[in-house]
Amino acid sequence: MDQQKIDALRAQAVAPFSHLIDGKHVPASDGGTMDILSPIDGRVLTTTAKGTAADMEAAIASARAAFEDRRWAGQPPAARKKVLMKWADLIEENALELAVLGVRDNGTEIAMALKAEPGSAAGTIRYYAEALDKIYGEIAPTSSDILGMIQKEPVGVVGAIIPWNFPMMIGAWKLGPALAMGNSVVLKPSETASLSLMRMCDLALEAGLPPGVLNAVTGEGKIVGESMGLSMDVDVLVFTGSGGTGRRLMEYAARSNMKRVYLELGGKSPHIIFADAPDLDVAAKAVAGGIFRNSGQVCVAGSRLLVEASIHDDFVAAVAKATSGMNVGDPLNVDTAIGAVNSEVQLMQNLGFVETAQSEGGEVVTGGDRILQDTGGYYMAPTIVTGVTPDATLTQKEVFGPVLGVTPFNSDDEAVQIANATVYGLAGGVWTANLSRAHRMVRDVRTGVMHVNTYGGADGTVPLGGVGQSGNGSDKSLHAIEKYINLKTAWIKL
Prior knowledge:
Layout: H1 3-11, E1 19-21, E2 24-26, E3 33-37, E4 44-49, H2 53-68, H3 77-93, H4 95-106, H5 110-131, E5 138-139, E6 146-154, E7 157-161, H6 167-180, E8 184-188, H7 195-207, E9 214-216, H8 221-230, E10 236-240, H9 243-255, E11 260-264, E12 270-273, H10 280-292, E13 304-308, H11 312-324, H12 344-359, E14 363-366, E15 370-371, E16 379-380, E17 383-386, H13 393-396, E18 403-409, H14 412-419, E19 427-431, H15 435-444, E20 449-452, E21 485-493
Parallel strand pairs: 7-8, 7-10, 8-9, 10-11, 12-13, 12-19, 13-18, 17-18, 19-20
Antiparallel strand pairs: 1-2, 3-4, 5-6, 6-21, 14-17, 15-16
Helix pairs in contact: 2-8, 3-5, 3-7, 4-5, 4-7, 5-6, 10-11
């Protein structure tokens, strides 16, 4: 990466953002705007339109009209593929600009952002572009005088609510399969990180996506998100975020048209370390990276460290040593390992969890406080807390920040019991040289993703989904397409 290019992009003023409805940039219907604060320095970066319910209704109407006249769904697969491939190319061509804009908006360290945001988004869009003309229908095994055909059709209008931690990456997880299958989409980005995703939508139009097929409305979840959830004209709702919001979206669906709702929610992912791990130093570095990159603001972050008691003290020391080499600072500096917390509200919440952990008997080994306050930005020292019991708040509640709770165990069964002792089940990891033990852990720990002798890095070829209160349905892989199609049976008498 070229630091000079990054600094030049950082210095550019960011023009105000507005909604994207029917292929046009439009302000809020009442003229309202929201200030966007940069977590780097706490200053106003730009403004976005503060959407109203009427704005969301207009966007949904645009998506519905685009779907009904089949301006996208009616195009041949090869034509849709061409547009999506061009979109992926444009994302890659503008990758550094998109990444810097996103970092200024949400605080992710630039080294991670460049790969995880435009890099991942382009790859995801290209993956589903390549897949869309390989999704076949089926012929049922019927009697000789009947032809039973199973067709796969787009569902219609998809509403997608995107979080602030990786808006382009997670946005592409929804947009890629939804658009590939011929649906129209309405996006609702996060209030605190929408800019790079909105710019990515502009590139879709540049690539040739017809107006109205992709719409985006910025604003508060309690207004525009609720309007989307209650709409009678949204067929499928997909969401990544908190459990509380997920519950409300399910309620909205029940109160309206009983739209299908797919949720990727929180996690308290257990990272389990056995004494026979192949390389404990490598494991320690993976533990530190698995919780502290992006200031812990990762859905699958390994926020619970479960360590075999015989190596507990030495391994915690190794993780602390690995953490000490991860400098926290300006996320647009290429040498920064850990960037900013997304907002002051999130930072205060993180610090509150540390105070609660200490009050419940936990011991802070390192970190635990706000740092770099003189910058005006939102930075927190990576924090390790030992003595965290299975029923402690730090075990049971998602922090979504750079806070690692450590709990010892004495046996395989105890490790599984502790790992499964929360309402969540998004991800997990285990380090062991014992193949049988590894397979037992994969089988017995209730998660959507289980890593063995590694943590993170699962690409788009495999699904990401949770169990329990971590949600339902899957993002990524060909399985994600299932959320965006209807199966239609044709029963034909011959």
